[in-house]
Amino acid sequence: MNTVIEEPKAELKLGETHVTLLGTAHVSRQSADTVRALLSSDQYDAVAVELCSSRHGVLSNPDTLAKMNLFQVLREGKASMVMANLALSAYQQKMANELGIDPGAEMKVAIEVAGQKSMPVLLIDREIGTTLKRIYRNIPWWKRLALMSALLASAFSNEKVSEDDIEQLKQGDILESALSGLKENDRSLFKPLIDERDQYMVARLRSELTDSNIKNLLVVIGAGHLKGMQALLEKTPAPSQQDNQKTQDSLNAIPPASRWPKLIPWLIVCAIVAGFAIGFQRSPQMGWQMIIDWVVINGGLSALGATLAWAHPMTILTAFLAAPLTSLNPMIGAGMVAGAMEIFMRKPRVGDFAQLKSDVTKLSGWWTNRVARILLVFFLSSLGSAIGTYIAGFSIFQRLAS
Predict the structure, then answer these.
(1) Which of these, 26, 23, 32, 28, lies nearest to 2 by C-alpha position?
(2) Is the pLDDT of residue 2 over 60?
(3) Is residue 2 part of a domain?
(4) Three-class SS state of 221
(5) Which whole number is the average pLDDT over 177-189?
(6) Beta bridge partner(s), residue 218
(7) How many CB atoms lie within 10 A of CB 4?
(8) Co-location of 135 and 177 in the same domain
(9) Mean pLDDT of the chain
(10) Same structural domain for residues 268 and 329?
(11) Which of 222, 252, 282 is the last residue of a domain?
């Protein structure tokens, strides 16, 4: 028999508004029931939720994914971010499938009941894309692969999750739980993930309540944010509205990328082109052999990546032909070209968009769903081309050294 665990809660005064912070688990029947009971009690005249506008849009309109423009996603370099979001969604959906409750059910309930009572809904969380980008920029390049791997591993894990285990998520955050395979004391990861969002949501709350007529506010947040937000809200003296805005602006800013990572691809291109020039200067035969090595290795590994993604034969050929050229132009990647060809050859069907969130909860779904497979083609062909660039470059300079 399950032990009933009361939702963690804190009561405080913010100006003229009585605020109730309610800590929830994002996949919990008990959390959803508690939110419904509190909002149905008529003691609150507004509700704030741990959602950004994009996540609110997905919860309110499940067809949002069907409107995704894949060409635009590839062109704007957002494919990796979309994959990360899908992996996180898959992690939540996997737990929800085992418990028979939708991910973010307590947020949906809050929005639903607020709509029935004509109650204002305040969206206080930072955009998930901004959070992931700040995490990405906050960690060294060699940890970034581990970040994506942790997200994918959490989505594909076969470990069963009980409802008691889900209730324990009240001690953390859903994204933190998904990344539990990474080092728990890694501040470079968890500062943007938890601490910064505590600060952002508090600043948003203060801004929303300035000059408002809200007397009693229920704030529905993941329990991992409860302690940090409570401490910030109780801090005196309260920051000014101008300071609140500065906090939001600074936490929304994406840290500039280091100059060296931007220069490295161009330095590699210069080194490869210089290698070709030296090879042809020594002998046309050596120069042409270097060209062949470059095309076969770089194009071959990119095509192999597309093949592993079960890409269309024309996409595989495109990856083979594009990779040797795109690797000499850091402004465009082989994965973008291969992904665009896959879209052209196998245009996703309406059902692929509709089933995307459920399909990506299974490893096989990334290959059978056309939308997910396009993202996989992008990722694996890009990875193959990147590996091919270093192997082919090594081969070229090995010939020059011999």
Answers:
(1) 28
(2) no
(3) no
(4) strand
(5) 54
(6) 20, 47
(7) 7
(8) yes
(9) 82
(10) yes
(11) 252
pLDDT at 194: 82
236 with 144, same domain: the answer is yes
Of the listed ranges 85-94, 353-362, 388-397, the least confidently predicted one is: 85-94
Q: What is the pLDDT of residue 251?
A: 92
User: How far is it, in rounded angstroms, from Cα 314 to Cα 9?
Assistant: 57
Which residues, 6+ apart, have CB-to-CB distance to 206 below 8 Å? 14, 238, 239, 241, 244
Q: Does residue 229 sit in the same domain as residue 354? A: no
The percentage of the chain sitting over the pLDDT mark of 70, rounded to a whole number, equals 77
Copy the structure tokens of residue 244.
Answer: 């609140």
Residue 272 within any structural domain of the chain: yes
Tokens representing 55? 């996540």
Helices (H), 122-195: 128-138, 141-156, 163-167, 174-178, 187-190
Instruction: From 150, 265, 252, select the one nearest 207 (Cα to Cα).
Output: 252
pLDDT tens digit sequence for 64-76: 655 667 777 777 7
In a domain, residue 98? The reply is: yes
Alpha helices in 40-116 (DSSP H): 53-60, 70-75, 79-99, 105-116
Q: Looking at the structure, do residues 170 and 94 belong to the same domain, yes or no?
A: yes
At 300, list the tokens: 């071959």
Residues 264 and 232 in one domain: no
Q: Find out whether 286 and 279 touch, Cβ atoms under 8 Å.
A: yes
303, part of any domain = yes
Please identify, among 224, 252, 280, the residue that sits at the C-terminal boundary of a domain: 252
Strand-pairing partners, residue 122, are 48
Nearest-angstrom CA–CA distance, 389 and 327: 7
Residue pair 233/19 in contact by the 8 Å Cβ criterion: yes
**Count of domains forming the chain:** 2
Where does the pLDDT of residue 1 fall: very low under 50, low under 70, confident under 90, or very high at 90 and above?
very low
pLDDT digits (tens, 9 = 90+) for 347-370: 888 777 778 877 877 888 889 999
**Rounded to an integer, what distance in angstroms lies between the CA atom of residue 171 and that of residue 180?**
13
Radius of gyration of the chain (CA): 25
State which residues form the domain around 308. 259-401
Residue 81 sits in the same domain as residue 106:
yes
Measured CA angle at 230 (ends 226, 231), to 5 deg: 120
Same domain, 243 and 269: no
